[in-house]
């Protein structure tokens, strides 16, 4: 009965994308396996999103849900920092902690599945031939949004600018210990000089975007998994 | 200079070549006279005798190996050569050359690789290496796709090539062949169906392809060797029965035996892997021969499977795949390294010998039979059916795969369908009594191998780069592009890790828990099981070390109030401000020299200014190039048999891991006091002591948390804390006035930087107001952050960190199931 309810809810929310058979089977696995209330709580919202902005397909959502559940060690229905910190690969990623923090905006300490998907959705590859809809909102996986995610990692105090010390911190994480502090500072100065257009010794988002005009962000910040 | 060295070595090679051929020639002459010498009684006691025959066989083998190794050495003298022509092709050339020299000297075939040599001594080493270094998680994560390619594609290749050739034969284009019928062609098709990965892997190292393709191609090539041999044996026994006598029942038996042989071989492999892991648990006292067990038992699995007429290749593959985890954990560090290097050395050596033998064996007038139509059609069918097979199977797989294989992947897979040593070994073991066209098959196989290895091997890379080049233009990136580009790489790999891109996680997780619960306990040494504690030790040592250097530095300076440590070892000092300053000075002096040449001088100044900037750029680029952490490429080194380059990665991983742990420790330290998280990160950490002071005061008011570890506390004043018991369970670190005076003198030590805290509850910047706010689920809202729950979880760390006042925790119940939950479970240390 619960499953039927779920189906109904799920289908009614995704009018645009009919479920294929395999997708349905996958979804059913998820439903019988996990707390169904959680699914109704989590899935429809992201599916609602999917019709407008995200279009993460339901098989991806199921896949991500499995992953979410696997990360969620004590079945609390949400992830906290230590769940992320348990991913051993992140401990050897120089920016690992920053990225974990990016999953917890505004001082939150737990995120639910919905937000999890929403953040990962930014890393979907950009559609090759986007449908032209004049008043459609900007898709969440657009170039600008991808850049914003990166900018966020630098801009820890959220004043909309990357200051020198913020850049220095990130740089310190990304280079080996052989490089001295002074060398780092000069590299930082250099980078800011290069990108800074209005001379305020900091990089605003616009300047950040401009300095990366020639980089293929769409390609570099997309994971194939979510294609 | 390199050119000179190259010449030297070339002359060395020529010398060795001459020795080789002369011994060969001598051998034939001594052969002729040997009878006489032995017949005649020795004329007296000889002090020294020349006993060539006594040592001939091993001597020749050793010489071949030496020549092959020297040849290999030469190839790598010039870095360009091997990037243009794959090593395997070069080795074939050398083999041809050597064979030619010997042929020219005395018109005999110098040496030919016997199937026995190949299947008993050379192949197992290569396959064992591949199995032992197989990244298990990815292998089993893509097991379905690998099986499809290895089994279905191989059967498809064999059947389509065999049947097409038979069809063409019926039309009479090839003329008259002495064949029984279809079965001979199917046999031929099956022996040509195995794809050799060597050249493809070499291409992969150069061109960026993603891990999934890597593992699929690698796994496929490994398993399809086994499948090919099984197929070959089935058809071979059909021929032995005789084409007309094969009934429907025999066909069914053939299919059944296919599965029995393959699965049986796998099972044998797993059993031996279990045995090997179990034995390696008890080899502590015989460390010297520890590595020997790995090789001997793996080889035994190969022989056992061969004895039971099961697939020996699959047996040794799965021995390697299954035992690696336990063996690597059980063996001591030196033995593990020995095993790694031995494995690579033997595999690389066998490969070298095989390809050189391929060249040498071809120089033999007795084996060549030419049939233009047959040979050309074989080449054509092999190429076409490989492409068809790959495209169709990929299309089919992509419908079910979460990570689809793209166009370039398919091109690489189909164009990289090289045939190699296995085909040669099989065709050499054909029985001429049964297959009368053996010589034609042999010739064709050799030509197919040469054609694919040399031609396709040489062109694959340029093809792929040509396909890829369309997308990206080459341009020197600016510093910020470089910096951010690298940051993007790291971000992406982290996101991939978080989203768990590869593998069936549910099954894998189940397997892992089973593994942890039962297998590890059975197969691993107790000391190896404790390796998780090692992380803790590293962690603790780090902090102790920091504290010691911190204090030592203070003593050296005579006071604890020291400032940022000046860096004494500046390798490259790029100071932009000062250089600008000097530039201005220089231009001023130029202006002073003469007003008449101002215009010219201004140009010169601009030029110099530009040059200076460029050189700064070069410096900075160089610096970044060298020291920016490389994005994760953890798998690549495992596939190549050419070298082991894991040390650099390991060092980097260790460094990053230490940094991460330090940061986590620092942030943990601040949260432990319940410091509000809204501290401005951008502030320089010099202000941290005051921050700490405040937090300590907060503590005294709130009275929440209870202990202090010297290693973690502010080591500037290790003896200035007084513990005041307040109500029994609380104590308040009392910072003296001295500490206040020191407030603005910090030390530049990352371990004490508290800069990693997320900033909370601040006004949102304009760009973040897009509907990105996270809505907590109801459950999430119930669990409030920083509840005592969270704090308690971290306490075991303190206990094990030999905290001086851990007795204060005695009455706090310590949950056991989540020790150190903020540490990763497993690390690559």
Automatic annotation (TrEMBL), chain A:
Keywords, in A-Z order: Calcium, Cell membrane, Cytoplasm, Lipoprotein, Membrane, Metal-binding, Myristate, Nucleus, Phosphoprotein, Protein transport, Repeat, Transport
Xref: CDD domains: EFh
Localization terms from the record: Cell membrane; Cytoplasm; Nucleus
Classification via Pfam families: EF-hand_7 (PF13499)
Top-rank taxon: Eukaryota
Domain EF-hand: 142-177, 183-218
Family (UniProt): Belongs to the calcineurin regulatory subunit family. CHP subfamily.
Annotated protein name in UniProt: Calcineurin B homologous protein 2 isoform X1
Species, as recorded: Huso huso (Beluga)
TrEMBL record, chain B:
Annotated compartments: Apical cell membrane; Early endosome membrane; Recycling endosome membrane
Residues spanning the membrane: 58-75, 87-105, 117-134, 146-165, 185-205, 212-235, 255-279, 348-368, 374-397, 440-457
Pfam families per record: Na_H_Exchanger
Range of residues in the leader sequence: 1-25
Job description of the protein: Plasma membrane Na(+)/H(+) antiporter. Exchanges intracellular H(+) ions for extracellular Na(+) in 1:1 stoichiometry, playing a key role in salt and fluid absorption and pH homeostasis. Major apical Na(+)/H(+) exchanger in kidney and intestine playing an important role in renal and intestine Na(+) absorption and blood pressure regulation.
Domain Cation/H+ exchanger transmembrane, chain residue ranges per copy: 66-466
Higher taxonomy: Eukaryota, Metazoa, Chordata, Craniata, Vertebrata
PANTHER family noted in UniProt: SODIUM/HYDROGEN EXCHANGER, SODIUM_HYDROGEN EXCHANGER 3
Top-level taxon in the UniProt lineage: Eukaryota
Broad class of where this protein is predominantly found: membrane
Keyword match Hydrolase: no
Topology of the protein relative to the lipid bilayer: Multi-pass membrane protein
Record keywords, A-Z: Antiport, Cell membrane, Endosome, Ion transport, Membrane, Phosphoprotein, Signal, Sodium, Sodium transport, Transmembrane, Transmembrane helix, Transport
Protein name (database record): Sodium/hydrogen exchanger
InterPro entries: Cation/H_exchanger_CPA1 (IPR018422), Cation/H_exchanger_TM (IPR006153), Na/H_exchanger_3/5 (IPR018410), NaH_exchanger (IPR004709)
The organism of origin for this protein: Huso huso
